[in-house]
Amino acid sequence: MDKNRTEGTKHEIKGAIKEVVGKVTGNKAKEAAGSVEKNIGAMQKDVGKAMDHARGESKKH
Q1: Rounded to whole angstroms, how far apart are CA atoms 59 and 61?
Q2: Does the predicted TM-score (pTM) go above 0.90?
Q3: Which of the chain's termini has less CB crowding within 10 Å, N or C?
Q4: Which helix (H) or strand (E) holds 8?
Q5: Residue spans with biased composition (Basic and acidic residues) (predicted)?
Q6: Rounded to whole angstroms, how far apart are CA atoms 25 and 39?
Q7: How far is Cα 5 from Cα 20, in angstroms, rounded to an integer?
Q8: What is the number of other CB atoms lying within 10 angstroms of the CB of residue 4?
Q9: How far apart are the first and last CA of the chain?
Q10: CA atoms within a 13 Å half-sphere pointing along the CA-CB vector of 54
Q11: Is the pLDDT of residue 49 over 80?
Q12: HEC letters along 11-56
């Protein structure tokens, strides 16, 4: 498993928590920062999936 997948998942979870805390406390800055971190984590996880897929395809050939 590519490191980007695990790191991306960690950022997604951390961002989701920040986003919820921001909503609950009414802190729009924390909510926005959480949303950004969550989305960056999702992109990083997708990069990791693509890397895993590419490695898998190269091993087939």
Answers
A1: 5
A2: no
A3: C
A4: helix 3-25
A5: 46-61
A6: 21
A7: 23
A8: 19
A9: 19
A10: 7
A11: yes
A12: HHHHHHHHHHHHHHHCCHHHHHHHHHHHHHHHHHHHHHHHHHHHHH
